[in-house]
């Protein structure tokens, strides 16, 4: 699940390839060059690149145990299909470069994320992979800001996880004095709405 807050400034869609963070997992071990796992990984990523831009989300698997690999790609639901494609075209080679022999990894960009693993993680809340973004500017009234932020995120969580919102995505804004607070929440669509709500 993703929660993003921005006060006063919103990133433009032209910054869709802005790198945010990555994590390579050592827990699942590593693979060697030209191994069956690497071959399966090479087959997985084109499948995700092909499937994701039309819907904004896809999961896929390649190979059989013990060399199977599972992958997931998600684009922000307010990103265009071309921005989604562009982000994935940047993210996939970058995760391969940053995690050259890890059997699991995840990479976040402003408009997309890509995750792969040798274990089946579909439909499960990811408690292991997280990172935090901070705004270097301070607010003048932290108590009010925190209260209003919680209220906005609670509202967006409800909007993203109720009704027929199959994208598990919501955006909104709230005035705080003369400034405006912008929020975004999104879950990967392999989660059920109750799991998404719990995660958010």
TrEMBL record:
Cellular component GO terms held in the UniProt record: extracellular region
The lineage's top-level taxon is Eukaryota
Which sequence ranges form a coiled-coil region, renumbered to this chain? none
- Major place of residence: secreted
- Location in or out of the cell: Secreted
**Matches recorded under InterPro entries:** CRR_secretory_protein, GNK2, GNK2_sf
Task: Please give the name of this protein.
Answer: Gnk2-homologous domain-containing protein
Q: Origin organism of this chain?
A: Arabidopsis lyrata (Lyre-leaved rock-cress)
């Amino acid at each position: 699940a993703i929660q993003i807050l921005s006060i006063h400034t919103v990133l433009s869609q032209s910054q869709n390839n802005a790198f945010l963070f990555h994590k390579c997992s050592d827990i699942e071990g590593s693979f060697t060059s030209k191994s069956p796992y690497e071959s399966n990984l090479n087959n997985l990523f084109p499948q995700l690149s092909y499937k994701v831009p039309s819907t904004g989300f896809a999961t896929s698997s390649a190979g059989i145990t013990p060399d199977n690999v599972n992958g997931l790609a998600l684009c922000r639901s307010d990103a265009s299909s071309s921005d989604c494609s562009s982000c994935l075209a940047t993210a996939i080679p970058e995760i391969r470069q940053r995690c050259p022999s890890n059997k699991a990894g995840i990479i976040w960009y402003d408009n997309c994320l890509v995750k792969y693993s040798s274990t089946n993680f579909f439909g499960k809340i990811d408690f292991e992979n997280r990172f935090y973004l901070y705004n270097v500017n301070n607010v003048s009234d932290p108590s009010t800001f925190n209260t209003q932020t919680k209220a906005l995120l609670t509202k967006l969580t409800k909007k993203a996880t109720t009704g027929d919102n199959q994208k598990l995505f919501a955006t909104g804004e709230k005035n705080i004095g003369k400034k405006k607070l912008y929020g975004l929440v999104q879950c990967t669509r392999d989660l059920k709405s109750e799991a998404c709500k719990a995660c958010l």
